């Protein structure tokens, strides 16, 4: 099995709720702000999407504060710099979304552990939302060293949408964990500022050959039901004849074994760790229904996993790959191994990197990663 120790063992999504803080003053006066707080809660954690609507005074930068009444603890955030001290939470704008015009809106998200009631005491630049007074004059904060660009287009509704522009360390942090469960050798994972699909940053994986050179970075899966994923990948060495993996998802419905995407016989394939089933079947006719992964250029890889229906779809460059589809209808040379037993995956994490079961090495870059409950697109 290849999984992070932090992967959630029981991922049970509860109903989403929305808290809105609105003005309490006279109907003729515009409120300072209003806040929508949409939370997805499960047994051991939560994600929250927060939308701030500004009042009548344009802002050149913004800071939203609130307190948690429960045991919530923020572990990562996107589209804002979020800090927590005790129950107090502060979210600060980033360079690309600092300007907030009168009546304008801005959204950001966060992930955390534990649970509790939704916060209600939001304040924007020191003024309680619902307070009709103009925002207080504040001293501009010292610019951070974070360099950011607007988030990737086309994934505003995705639960995770990351272009790595907020990464400031040598290895991806925040929601991302670096490591491999089995063994690690010469394989490395780092933030790269020389090659990127968008903006100025990507994650570079230097994948060594041999079983003990696994190198991955990953995060927990946000939600349940149908999971759609999209990422851009660039690599230097053509997919080999041997079996390799560049994406893995832990399947709690399959004994915690991995559902893996990678390649074999020089074409893309899916592989089920528990019984080593491949998609497509590795016959010449089956491999011919897959495609290689181009080298030296960015490729858009998309997938959809429907655990309830036991179905799987895959796209490369927005075109569906016939040999990488499980739709419940047997297809010769494609899914006979896959349909040999009932399969209803329940994935709990998502990892990108490199895993070679022979001597094959590769260098890969990943960028503009998105996960959600609807197709995201390239």
Protein model, in words:
The protein is mainly β and 378 residues long. 1% of the residues lie in helices and 39% in strands. The chain is built from 1 helix and 25 strands. Strands 11, 13, 14, 16, 21, 22, 23 and 25 form an 8-stranded antiparallel β-sheet that branches. It has a 7-stranded antiparallel β-sheet with strand order 12-15-24-17-18-19-20, with no helix packed on it. Strand 6 and strand 7 (88-92) form a beta hairpin.
**Proportion of residues in β-strands:** 35-45%
Terminal Cα separation, in Å? Answer: 30 Å
Globally, the shape reads: elongated
Order of helices and strands: EEEEEEEEEEEEEEEEEEEEHEEEEE
Layout of helices and strands:
Layout: E1 17-21, E2 33-41, E3 45-54, E4 63-67, E5 73-78, E6 81-85, E7 88-92, E8 105-113, E9 123-124, E10 127-128, E11 160-162, E12 177-178, E13 188-192, E14 202-207, E15 215-220, E16 227-235, E17 244-251, E18 257-264, E19 267-272, E20 277-279, H1 284-287, E21 299-306, E22 311-316, E23 319-320, E24 349-356, E25 362-372
Antiparallel strand pairs: 1-2, 2-3, 3-8, 4-7, 4-9, 5-8, 6-7, 9-10, 11-25, 12-15, 13-14, 14-25, 15-24, 16-21, 16-25, 17-18, 17-24, 18-19, 19-20, 21-22, 22-23
């Amino acid at each position: 099995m290849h999984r992070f120790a932090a992967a959630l063992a029981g991922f049970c999504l509860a109903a989403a709720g929305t808290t809105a803080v609105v003005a309490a003053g006279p109907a003729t006066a515009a409120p300072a702000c209003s806040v929508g707080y949409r939370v997805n809660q499960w047994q051991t954690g939560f994600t929250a999407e927060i939308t701030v609507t500004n009042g009548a005074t344009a802002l050149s930068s913004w800071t939203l504060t609130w307190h948690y009444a429960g045991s919530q603890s923020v572990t990562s955030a996107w589209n804002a710099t979020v800090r927590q001290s005790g129950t107090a939470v502060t979210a600060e704008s980033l360079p690309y979304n600092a300007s907030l015009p009168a009546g304008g809106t801005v959204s950001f998200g966060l992930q955390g552990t534990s649970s509790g009631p939704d916060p209600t005491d939001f304040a924007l630049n020191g003024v309680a939302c619902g307070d009709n007074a103009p925002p207080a004059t504040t001293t501009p904060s010292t610019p951070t060293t974070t360099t950011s660009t607007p988030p990737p287009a086309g994934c505003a509704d995705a639960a995770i949408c990351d272009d790595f522009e907020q990464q400031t360390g040598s290895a991806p942090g925040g929601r991302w964990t670096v490591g491999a469960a089995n063994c690690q050798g010469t394989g490395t994972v780092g933030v790269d500022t020389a090659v990127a699909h968008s903006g100025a940053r990507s994650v570079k994986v230097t994948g060594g050959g041999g079983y003990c050179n696994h190198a991955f970075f990953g995060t927990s899966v946000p939600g349940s039901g149908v999971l759609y994923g999209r990422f851009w990948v660039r690599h230097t060495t053509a997919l080999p004849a041997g079996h390799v993996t560049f994406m893995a998802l832990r399947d709690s419905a399959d004994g915690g074994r991995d559902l893996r995407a990678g390649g074999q016989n020089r074409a893309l394939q899916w592989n089920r760790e528990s019984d080593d089933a491949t998609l497509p079947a590795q016959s010449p006719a089956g491999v011919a229904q897959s495609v290689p992964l181009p080298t030296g250029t960015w490729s858009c890889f998309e997938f959809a996993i429907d655990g309830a229906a036991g179905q799987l779809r895959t796209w490369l460059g927005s075109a569906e790959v016939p040999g990488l589809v499980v739709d419940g209808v047997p297809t010769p040379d494609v899914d006979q191994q896959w349909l040999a037993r009932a399969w209803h995956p329940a994935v709990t994490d998502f990892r990108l990197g490199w895993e070679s079961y022979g001597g094959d090495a590769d260098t890969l870059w990943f960028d503009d990663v998105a996960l959600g409950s609807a197709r995201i697109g390239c």
